[in-house]
Amino acid sequence: MTVRINQTGCIGSGQCVLAAPDVFDQSDDDGHGIVLVAEPSAELLPGVRDAVDRCPAQVVTLEE
Amino acid sequence: MTEAAVCPVHHERDHPLHPPAGFAEAVAGGPVKMIWPNGVEAWMVSSYAGVRQVLSDSRFSTRKGGQPEMRTDDGDEVLDPDQPGNINGIDGAEHMRLRRPLSRGFMVKRMNELRPRIQQIVDEHLDVMEAEGAPADLVASLCLPLPSLVIAELLGVPPEHQELFQVTAGDLFGKNGSKDEYLAHATKLAEVLTPIVEEKRAAGTNDDMIGLMANDTDFSMEELIFLCIGLLAAGHETTSNFLGLFTLHLFEKPDQLEVLRRDPSRADVVVEELMRYTVGSLGGPGLTRRATEDVEVDGVLIKAGDWVSLSLMANLDEALCPGAEQLDLERDAVSHLGFGFGPHQCLGANLARAELQIGLRTLFERFPNLRPAVPVTEMSYRNDMITYGAAEIPVVW
After folding, report:
1. Is B103 in CB contact (< 8 Å) with chain A?
2. Pairing between strand A2-5 and B371-372?
3. A56 contacts in B (CB within 8 Å)?
4. Smallest Cβ distance to A14: which of B96, B100, B107?
5. A30/B335 Cβ within 8 A
6. Integer Cα distance of B394 and B137 in angstroms
7. Inter-chain touch A31–B349, beta carbons under 8 Å
8. Cα(A9)–Cα(A15) distance, integer angstroms
9. For a tag on chain A, would you pick the N or C end, based on fewer CB atoms within 10 A?
10. DSSP calls for B259-272
11. Tens digit of pLDDT per residue, chain B (397 long)?
């Protein structure tokens, strides 16, 4: 299970941070989403899936 | 098959908090062509999947250049389509050049840092409302002043410029004037903002939005000033109207108000559900896009050049959540379209969330017996097809 953010399309909306604050943050340089935990444990997965769904730029992926 | 289905856009309401009469029936079953008051025909997309698709597909452009602005009755464009800094009228890399630096100023952690100041503004305004006694107009007492004071804070308007800034912003957005009046007020606001930008440039600071734009970007002064006015405009009436509409929905549904009263710490989830339901219930036409290629949406072929209008009644689509037509404050947050979707999703969404959460929670904690002084259906509402909300909300407690 690997979490990724495609930086090219990221608009820095912060939806991933709201959905899973333990897995995502935003970069102080450009506000873009950053992955803190690339291989999240099972209890973090619902939040990650929510982030995948909510991301307005559709750039968060979870490879299962 | 669609040419015969063209009917006028609906925007008259039987009840101020319900979707326009007959709208749901008119748009059921997929994209249908409707005709706007200014004569433009557009496909109305109203399904959850369809709206998400159009808003996130780069084959739908947000450029309005050269065409009648669909949202006005008379076809009179307030905005020059080529206005530098018009972030909602450009696509792709051009849009991202403006959007990216602004995203930094709206980061979740930055919004969290603003929360104590938002709380202070809410507290001070409710102190005044209480001291002046019932009945009060909630719109004038809290809903209208809150967003403009907060956006001034976010932009970083220095204290000595605050009063002039607030008066000028109020003139620009407080009333529905003519295009000439709007442009005159916008020019005045630009005159107020220019020395502020110059001061931040000289100081080299980037710890607020104006400083960030002035010192960390390649924005021209014209772009920068227009973006500031755009941020003010976007944050002003929308947040104000929604704080009012949320309160009115809760007045109309006492069982739901009880859910918030029982556990005010759930204000974040409550605001998501109120946002979903309120935006969905506004129904009617919302955002507009234009197809640059032929694209199929919900089984209908939309041709290159066709206008598309997106109804956020999509928030009431059962495909989003079960019982979507009901307000259910016990529901977990769902992936609603209340702030839009795609690259143009509301830039200030996280700021609006903070203001709405703090405003709503504090309002009902401070005034547990808050209730409307007149029936919700007898209040006056403003509807210019861009924003909708109560002009006044008389309350007692």
Report:
1. yes
2. unpaired
3. 55-56, 340-343, 345
4. B107
5. no
6. 4
7. no
8. 14
9. C
10. HHHH-GGGHHHHHH
11. 444 456 777 778 899 999 888 888 888 888 999 887 777 888 999 999 999 999 999 999 998 754 545 555 544 555 666 788 888 889 999 999 999 999 999 999 999 999 999 999 999 999 999 999 999 999 999 998 999 899 988 999 888 888 888 888 777 765 556 677 777 888 888 898 999 999 999 999 988 999 999 999 999 999 999 999 888 877 777 899 999 999 999 999 999 999 999 999 999 999 999 999 999 999 877 788 999 999 999 999 999 999 999 999 999 999 999 999 999 999 999 999 999 999 999 999 999 999 999 999 999 999 999 999 999 999 999 876 567 899 999 999 9
Among B101, B108, B342, beta carbon nearest to A17 = B108
**E strand or H helix that includes residue B176:** none
> Rounded distance, CA B69 to CA A64, Å?
45
Fold of B3-396: Cytochrome p450 (1.10.630)
Interface check for A52 against chain B (CB to CB < 8 A): the answer is no
What is the C-alpha separation between B257 and B270, in angstroms, rounded? 10
Whether A11 sits inside 8 A of B100 (CB atoms) is yes
**Do B90 and B62 touch, CB atoms closer than 8 A?**
yes
- Decide if B104 and A53 are in contact by the 8 Å CB cutoff: no
Count Cα neighbours of B376 within 13 Å in the Cβ-side half-sphere: 17
pTM, to two decimals: 0.93
Domains with residue ranges and CATH for chain A: 2-63 (3.30.70.20)
Determine the 3-state secondary structure of B42 from DSSP. strand
Do A26 and B99 lie within an 8 Å CB cutoff? no
Q: Which of A26, A53, A57 sits opposite B107 (nearest CB)?
A: A26
